[in-house]
């Protein structure tokens, strides 16, 4: 078996394609707590209080979707090694390896997964000054949940190709994957089509988390779901819809994994495990609709030929064509 193409250090940032770019830029910079670092004619880059140059890129688009997921590698040499290993696996590279000329700099490459999500591996990005952590603002992006039409194929790709580890399952409905000590940086949710389910932003503590919810409430923005605390990952959650209807989450207190001791578990989908504080109740139909989003062809829209070139992608073609069997059943 091939070794993974790289050792991912962290999830750096997320690009979202959005139908409401100006309004969402105002939302994330105005009340969500991020800061604008760069602005272009069709895109905005925002940072948190942490060390990443930016954690969110909003790009104007006719349909909501995932632009790309950016992961940190340690060195440019690791990016070059990843490029060689992608070639050995027959996985096409969409950009790089090489210097990144756009916002944030760095040395990177981009490729796509079998459902068309663009993955960027980046080293040597521009440093930014760390901001104070008193205010109830996000440190950065801590995880992204992705809707998938084939959860087993998705987990296989991210573990085999990207070396991520499965921390926990929520029955056969969700899989939580880590690349460092955080319980999950990515989670997959079995769904009828490929799309982004939500993006979660880390608050430094439960107090920051609650004050953030309070600030949104003060501006008339109420949670779609939450506040509550999840069983898998043990993190707090409060989900909101941004102006384009994409779901964003405040979270805190994600479980830390000791790589040598952690044992993956399968969590039953029962209220006392999904909502351990008992404060949130089940998600509403409106919440589920927002989290389902719209079918997202990702890189296949720009590069239709990729479906034939990425192993396993053709079998998933016809988004929404793969039926979801009864939840919780193998
Ligand atoms: Fe989440």
TrEMBL record:
This is VOC domain-containing protein. Residues 10-124, 140-253 form the VOC domain. It comes from the Bacteria. Signal peptide: none annotated. It comes from Nocardia aurantia.
């Amino acid at each position: 078996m091939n070794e993974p193409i790289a050792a991912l250090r962290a999830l750096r940032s997320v690009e979202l394609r959005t139908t409401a770019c100006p309004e969402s830029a105002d939302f994330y910079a105005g009340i969500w707590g991020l800061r604008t670092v760069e602005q272009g004619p069709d895109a905005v880059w925002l940072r948190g209080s942490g060390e990443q140059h930016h954690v969110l890129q909003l790009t104007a688009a006719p349909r909501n979707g995932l632009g790309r997921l950016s992961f940190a590698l340690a060195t440019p040499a690791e990016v070059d090694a990843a490029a060689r290993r992608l070639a050995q696996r027959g996985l096409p590279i969409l950009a790089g390896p090489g210097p990144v000329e756009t916002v944030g700099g760095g040395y990177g490459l981009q490729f796509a997964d079998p459902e068309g999500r663009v993955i960027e591996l980046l080293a040597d990005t521009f440093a930014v000054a760390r901001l104070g952590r008193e205010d109830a603002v996000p440190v950065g992006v801590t995880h992204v949940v992705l809707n998938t039409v084939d959860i087993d194929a998705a987990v296989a790709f991210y573990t085999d190709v990207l070396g991520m580890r499965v921390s926990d399952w929520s029955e056969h409905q969700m899989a939580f994957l880590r690349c460092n000590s955080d319980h999950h940086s990515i989670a997959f949710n079995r769904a009828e089509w490929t799309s982004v389910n939500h993006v979660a932003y880390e608050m430094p503590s439960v107090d920051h988390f609650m004050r953030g919810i309070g600030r949104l409430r003060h501006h008339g923005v109420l949670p779609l779901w939450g506040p509550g605390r999840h069983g898998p990952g043990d993190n707090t959650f409060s989900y909101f819809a941004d102006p384009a209807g994409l779901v964003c989450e405040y979270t805190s207190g994600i479980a830390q994994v000791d790589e040598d001791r952690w044992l993956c578990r399968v969590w039953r989908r029962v209220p006392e495990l999904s909502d351990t504080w008992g404060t949130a109740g089940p998600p509403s139909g409106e919440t589920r609709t927002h989290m389902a989003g719209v079918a997202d062809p990702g890189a296949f829209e720009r590069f239709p030929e990729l479906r034939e070139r990425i192993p396993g992608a053709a079998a998933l073609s016809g988004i929404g064509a793969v039926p979801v069997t009864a939840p919780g059943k193998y």
